[in-house]
Design goal:
Elements lengths: L1 H15 L3 E2 L10 E5 L3 H15 L3 E5 L2 H11 L7 E4 L2 H9 L8 H4 L14 E12 L25 E3 L4 H14 L1 H14 E3 L3 H10 L4 E5 L1 H10 L7 E3 L10 E8 L6 H11 L2 H9 L4 E2 L29 H10 L4
Parallel strand pairs: 2-3, 2-4, 6-7, 6-8
Antiparallel strand pairs: 1-3, 4-10, 5-8, 5-9, 5-10, 5-11
Amino acid sequence: MRRLLAALAALAAVALLGTACGNGDGGSGDKLVVYSGRAENLIKPLLEQFEKATGIDLEVRYGGSAELAAQILEEGGNRRADVFLSQDAGALGALAREGVLDQVPQAELDKVAARFRAKDGTWVGVSGRARVFIYNPDLVPQAELPESVFDLTGPKWAGRLGIAPPNASFQSFVTAMRVTQGDARTKTWLEGIHRNAKSFENNIQIRDAVDRGEIAGGLVNHYYLYEKIAEVGADKVKARHHFFGHGDPGALVNVSGAGIVQGTQRRAQAERFVSFMLSEQAQRYYSEETKEYPLTAGVQAQAGLPPLDSIDGPDIDLADLASLKETLDMLAEVGLT
């Protein structure tokens, strides 16, 4: 994992240029420095709410979660980040294995179910997202919905599917398949899905292509459909969700999460940041604005979503999603990157 993160460090140095907000002068003064793998357009309003609620000023650097994790590791004993806010559990797990993350207070860990936080207490999930099969009911009758993601390599799906290999969530899903099903079966699935599916840059493109009837179905995160409904109204959206079950890797529930970077001189402020991310205010933001699953009790998910504990995804320690390099190598080998 160290080799993976080191290899990404050069990319991270480039990616961070132009992605910082704050003073960007190499020193943050009294500001709490957050490295955010969540996109600025999604998370900035919530970070502004944190500043207003606490009086703590933030300096935020945006980038890919793996790139930012590499940057934190590359900085060594001169780390600038106080908090790492990751798009997925894999990057958090990678840093935890390198001993870079400090303990999250137990009171915060206890707010979240054990499967959505690190076993060693070094990071905690703050929002959840489920992988789903999105489909157009005009092209896929209810009786023909796939029972498993493995069904999608069959001949009847040839040319009718969409995937987004560059997307971090797709890569995490493939990693979960590797961890739970083995490399051989995963590679065979990737070869089959490569034959059957059209590749898109992101989940939004897949969602819209399905909704327009250009493809029959695709693999995305659940919240993209809800974003579309919020934009144009449910009556104008054709696409529908189908949730896999029975431990299928196509039903992976991943999390965005937060970790406190070891050695921070702003420990108290970092703890307040984590606590705020798990507060009712922030959890409502995730539910209402980004359409994700809230992870703490007392806040409801979007109407129509199945309860989080009813999703029968793969039995996996989310920290194991850290084995990204092997996934990227496999995607390249079968021609998907």
